[in-house]
Write a structure and sequence with these properties.
It is a single chain. Strand 3 and strand 4 form a beta hairpin. Helix 1 runs antiparallel to helix 5 and helix 5 packs parallel to helix 9. The relative contact order is 0.11. 39% of the residues lie in helices and 20% in strands. It contains 15 helices and 16 strands. The protein has two domains: 242 residues, BirA Bifunctional Protein, domain 2, CATH 3.30.930; 89 residues, Rossmann fold (3-Layer(aba) Sandwich), CATH 3.40.50. The structure holds adenosine-5'-triphosphate and magnesium ion. Adenosine-5'-triphosphate binds next to strand 6, strand 10, strand 11 and helix 11.
Length: 423
């Protein structure tokens, strides 16, 4: 137990961290270009926030939350997603009085008690944005085009954007009656969860992953066919603008998304490569959310993207992520006196921006050279008493094998120039 990470969690090791940095930095860069600013929110919140903000009829709240009492007797939950926490922060920090719209992005861990599979973990990572203050189709389009540009900028090709509108509470009331009438006669063939959903929030039935339920619901009426005039007009505008911007999409009437407070536009970017965990990213409009967690009515729209699924997709598309730079130089050492000299030299080089490794193992020169090779260091110098006295050192270029005697004083400039020319 002690030396095994809990099920559904994993370490991100140094050999793969460059991929994470790559997508995280690209995301933050693209978000900044769209005028979104980063927000950092707590890992845990009051349980009630998620019950209300995610919705107590959702799978997340019903089955997946990590909830516990803290020592002060409060019910606390590890965030299963980011939107509820950001909405809480919007209210708590009075963002309604900031210049509108308020455009935020985040990079978070999230926690859900799930059946662990490829692309489905118990601790996972999300990149996301939330845009508050605009009901306009332009806001939907801005968020979707940000996502589209981000996926393109990390080299992803061929993910399909599925789009739907799930209307507003008033068009949904009528549809719910139609849906309930359709489902009623099939209830005994639907799973237990769907029977509960039927009582609490029938729309959730459309999100069921059980094959039996999917089969039963083949001819279910779709909400999109019943949305009101205003919602239909909004949806038309979103589609027109996306088409005019050359962002391809398909309308998928089956998408309802997992959160209770979504309305109007919902969307997903789906991959064919990750099986049933193919939804790399999902989002939608949530005009009722801020009000439902205690703020004044405020429209909002956002998305969350799973970093693990994104990286699986990038791997399967064979996308090359630039490797981190290898060391510019390895400084080998012979003897104590030279050791201190070399340490000072290394500090000077590092201060000057050079990536420098130095021997701290007191190994033989042969072993040090082997190690420098493994590190893929571009240059090597070995410092012993002679070098300290003469102020000269033999600089070896590891890629050509060439050596040349140089003044140690000139080492930093040479390495800097070399870096400039080769960058
Ligand atoms: P799914 O239908 O696959 O369970 P979801 O609807 O629960 O997804 P969201 O709540 O919309 O997912 O989260 C947004 C994104 O976060 C997903 O599209 C996915 O990329 C990622 N994600 C969600 N749950 C997990 C998980 N358990 N492990 C890894 N990534 C996840
Ligand atoms: Mg899920």
């Amino acid at each position: 137990m002690l030396i095994k990470a809990p099920k559904g969690t994993r370490d991100i090791l140094p050999d793969e961290i460059h991929k994470w940095h790559y997508v995280e930095e690209k995301f933050s860069e693209i978000c900044s270009r769209f005028g979104f600013r980063e927000i950092r929110i707590p890992v845990f919140e009051h349980t009630e926030l998620f019950e209300r903000g995610v919705g107590d009829a959702t799978d997340i709240v019903q089955k997946e939350m990590y909830t516990f009492s803290d020592k002060g007797g409060r019910s606390i939950t590890l965030r299963p997603e980011g939107t509820a926490g950001v909405a809480r922060s919007y209210i708590e920090n009075g963002m309604a009085s900031w210049p509108q719209p308020v455009k935020l992005f985040y990079n978070i861990t999230a926690y859900r008690y799930e059946n662990v599979q490829k692309g489905r973990y118990r601790e996972f990572h999300q990149l996301g944005v939330e845009l508050f203050g605009s009901t306009k189709a332009d806001a939907d389009v801005e968020v979707i085009s940000l996502l589209h540009l981000f996926l393109e900028s990390v080299g992803i090709r061929g993910l399909s954007l599925s789009l739907n509108s799930i209307g507003c509470p008033s068009c949904r009331a009528e549809y719910n009656r139609k849906l309930k009438a359709f489902v009623e006669s099939r209830l005994n063939r639907l799973c237990e969860d769907c029977n509960n959903r039927y009582q609490r929030n029938p729309l959730r039935i459309l999100d069921c992953k059980e094959q039996g339920c999917i089969n039963e619901l083949r001819d279910v009426p779709y909400l999109l066919d019943y949305i009101c005039g205003d919602c239909a007009e909004h949806f038309e505008k979103v589609k027109e603008k996306l088409a005019a911007m050359g962002i391809p999409f398909t309308v998928d009437k089956k998408i309802v998304r997992g959160l209770d407070y979504y309305n109007r536009t919902v969307f997903e970017f789906v991959s064919k490569n990750i099986g049933s965990q193919g939804t790399v990213c999902g989002g939608g409009r949530y005009d009722g959310l801020i009000e439902s967690v205690g703020g004044s009515p405020t429209p909002g729209i956002g998305f969350a993207l799973g970093i693990e699924r994104l990286l699986i997709e990038m791997d399967s598309q064979g996308i090359d992520v630039p490797l981190p730079p290898s060391p510019d130089i390895f400084i080998g050492v012979i003897g104590d006196r030279a050791g201190l000299y070399a340490e000072n030299l290394a500090l000077k080089l590092r201060t000057g921006g050079i990536i420098c490794h130095k021997d701290i193992m007191e190994r033989s020169v042969t072993a040090q050279m082997k190690y420098a090779n493994k590190l893929n260091a571009r240059f090597v110098v070995i410092i012993g008493d002679n070098e300290v006295e003469s102020g000269k050192v033999e600089l070896k270029d590891m890629s050509t094998g060439e050596t040349r005697m140089i003044n140690i004083d000139t080492l930093q400039d040479r390495l800097k120039k070399f870096k400039q020319v080769n960058s």
